[in-house]
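Anyone opening a protein record will find just a pair of labelled lines. The record below illustrates this layout.
***
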Amino acid sequence: MDHFSRKLETMAKNGWFDRLLALAHLRNIGPQAEVEGLVLSGGGARASFQIGALRYLYANKLVAPTKIAGTSAGSIIGSMLAQESEPDKQEEQLKLLETYWLGMKDSSDMFAEQAWFTRLKAQWEEIAEVLPERVPEPTAVEADADDPEVAVKEAMKYDPSTDSDFSVSMLWQAISVLPKIGRAGAGIAATVRGAERAASAYRPGSLIYRLLFESGWDKKAVSESGVELRMAFVGLNSGDLHFMRQDGIIVDANDVPLSDQVHDLSLGLWASCAIPGVFRPVKLGGEVYVDGGTRENIPVEMAVAKLGVTKPYVVVASPPGVPWEDYSAKDMVSTMMRTISILMDESNRDEVAWARTAGAVVIEPRVDVHGALTVEPELLKINRDYGWMRAAEEVGGAPTFADELTRVRVELYELGPDAPKGDRARVKARIAALAAEVDPAWLPDDWGAKTPKPSKSGKGGKQESGQAAKTEKA
């Protein structure tokens, strides 16, 4: 085994900083042919940002990827692009994906509720309205200014669940709500059974179905295009990070095949998108898989260290950080979910740092236009445009302008159509002024055009483009 191979083999055994040192050493071994690739993170509906960034890169002839690694929504984009090897053809596939993505009307197009979850929400509204109002208990230990030890001692004894002494008043409350709860009891039991069978709150909405079965997406084209594809997912049984290749073979994090069994590519795509609790896990071979983002949301190591990408473009869907919120009186579940969000954010930060040090061009948002589960047509369009403009800043020489322009556009959206005309006019004028300060080439090529819609043939509608379309948006 030569020195180059030994370095690659040991990288997976070291921490991320050691892997970067190894990569730096590999670059100094000697000249290598340039290999261009894409790394596409997960992010749910926020993939609208990635579509915009990629549209800029392709429109300006800046990318010609031969290797693509993606997670979750990034796998959807990657599998669309991987049908073609020529950049112009990849751009056509991207535009087709864009028409479907921006054509979504609401969250059900991406996240369709399971019947049990819909019933639970209806039942909960019925029950919650008859329950006594709950006063939030503090979940954080509050230090006593005079004697901090007091807080620690009190925290060790604190158990609010014991503060439920029986009283005639409590009995009367229970009797008054039991009839309504009793009537809902059978329905709740059925809902619980449905939840156990479904193993998820949602199922993939019509977007995924249309992309896989109506858009012309071709598994054979993906396997034969010559583009190397890796879609990340995580095994629940083993806890290991695995990937599906373009040929349906599953490999480990070192890109070593687990077996010679060929799996259906659409199942691998589904597995990569199987957000725990949101979508059902997917069984492939002897393993049960969930969304790759649970372990590696930005699979840059696979692209650089395993596939040999020397010119990586990393497009991230979610901004760094988590929104500030007061958690001093939140319940246990909320605290746990918040902790998971923080852990995932830290993982994303490490992966982005890894990518930058590895020499990648990283395009990521700094403004959170909408959430991962939010599908609202105008916000999708704003986020798509934001991706285009951030790409213009990172690789097109544009000055910093995208964040402010995007914030003002979100402000206009939040005002709503029923806001006073004067308020809307002022915000629109601000948008027009900000857009007028930059080169039109740094604005999306359909600036001001209506959202494109897929045609009935599934091939996508025409988009208005060109400088004539670069007008102020409503």
Summary: Residues 1-14, 450-474 have pLDDT under 50 and may be disordered. The first strand starts at residue 36 and ends at 40. The first helix runs from residue 3 to 11. The CA atoms of residues 38 and 68 lie 5 Å apart.
